[in-house]
Write a structure and sequence with these properties.
Helices cover 54% and strands 13% of the residues. It has helices at residues 2-7, 32-43, 50-58, 62-86, 104-110, 123-130, 145-163, 174-190; strands spanning 21-25, 46-49, 92-95, 114-120, 166-169. It starts with a helix and ends with a helix. The chain is α/β, with parallel strands linked by helices.
């Protein structure tokens, strides 16, 4: 893994040596978890899903946290999970929740030590992907999930774009998205 860290520092920026992790952001349904697991396997990194880490630590599903304790409490848990992950010394592929990029305190823990990849999809593509799993996505539990995704996209797009070191079109098949990410990392290694 030190080889990848060195390879990401080819442009001479010493700050990149600290970027141990790859953090994946994007709308719900962008494929952060699916793609993250596959990239982690390809790079032989450990995969972490921030939402799953929160669920494990609290003993409640994200939807239950939202329902019983509210979004504010969930965002606090997101900050704590990000802080803990930031303290790990081994490289990780980190899948975030869709709203993580809007949580400045959570972002602050991982920004300086992560290459951030934005999986870009349109709200309609995200809707088609999440329509089968709405129950596990509290912000999409209402009757018009597409309208919610369109609103979230408009609200979050600037944050996703500003945070990302790498922008990947994730509208296609997951094989192509994984290949695009790996190709981008290989390209950076050659610079």
């Amino acid at each position: 893994m030190p080889e990848l860290r060195r390879s990401l520092d080819k442009d001479g920026d010493p700050a990149l040596l600290k970027k141990l992790h790859i953090t994946i952001i994007g709308l719900p349904g962008a494929g952060k978890t699916t793609i993250g697991r596959r990239v982690a396997k390809a790079l032989r990194f450990r995969f972490l899903d921030i939402d799953k880490e929160i669920e494990r630590s609290v003993g409640l599903r994200v939807s239950e946290i939202f329902a019983t304790q509210g979004e504010k409490k969930f965002r606090e848990l997101e900050v704590e999970a990000s802080r803990i992950i930031a303290g790990t010394a081994q490289p990780r592929i980190i899948s975030t929740g869709g709203g993580w990029a809007m949580n400045e305190s959570a972002v602050a823990h991982l920004r300086s030590i992560s290459r951030i990849i934005y999986l870009r999809v349109s709200p309609i593509v995200a809707f088609k992907r999440v329509n089968l799993s709405k129950g596990s996505r509290p912000l999409l539990a209402g009757p018009d999930a597409l309208a919610v995704l369109e609103h979230l996209f408009e609200k979050r797009r600037a944050a996703y774009e500003a945070l990302a070191d790498i922008h990947i079109d994730a509208s296609g098949h997951s094989d192509q998205v994984v290949k695009s990410i790996l190709d981008q990392i290989k390209h950076e290694r050659r610079l």
